């Protein structure tokens, strides 16, 4: 279970983006988060993925309150999350070949990677020939497939997809959603998907949480 309990967070403590926000995801549940631009969806996604420390409140993972954030989060909690952002070019090191990009979390954890990278590439529909290329040599959709593969490397129990498909065409969107759903069906992982596309999120998720303007502000 993933719980955000009375979370207040943002970029200026005098003017937080989220105020006193509570959200609970049951194990394996998929929740779509809709809301107007700027209401704080990405901020919430980053707090839920332990990437942004809130000013107040708690994130509780399987009954265990989170005590550290980003690299200071305990490894077991940090690796419980796989995160995919909207703009793959901002989250991919331009110097790395896609195979190394996908392998980054494996390397960081001292794990063997060759076979696993090939398996992950297949899972997200990334041709083996593309693995040798660098980000500037592939399309946004291909790079996003690599970013999804990277998010799955450590077999996370939660996937946080922040507008993962916002820049992509319909067929790449469908392929990435299908890859996420296949992973979830196999592992029982839960999902928090942030987006603007109501039709997509309603089709994709078990439940929709909708913010009205200012609703995150308690
Ligand atoms: N790094 C940052 N520093 C300062 N303010 C920020 C930062 N990131 C976001 N904000 C501000 O926080 C507020 C919420 O931003 P956030 O990205 O969480 O909204 P959002 O609902 O995801 O928006 P969108 O749907 O447009 O992506 C906005 O007013 C934004 O300008």
TrEMBL record:
Keyword Transcription: no
SUPFAM superfamilies: P-loop containing nucleoside triphosphate hydrolases
Pfam families for this protein: ABC_tran
Gene Ontology BP terms: transmembrane transport
Keyword Nucleotide-binding tagged: yes
Segments forming domain ABC transporter: 2-218
PROSITE patterns reported in the protein's UniProt record: ABC_TRANSPORTER_2
Keywords in alphabetical order: ATP-binding, Nucleotide-binding, Transport
Gene Ontology molecular functions: ATP binding; ATP hydrolysis activity
Family, as annotated: Belongs to the ABC transporter superfamily.
Protein name from the UniProt record: ATP-binding cassette domain-containing protein
Organism: Streptomyces xanthii
Organism lineage string: Bacteria, Bacillati, Actinomycetota, Actinomycetes, Kitasatosporales
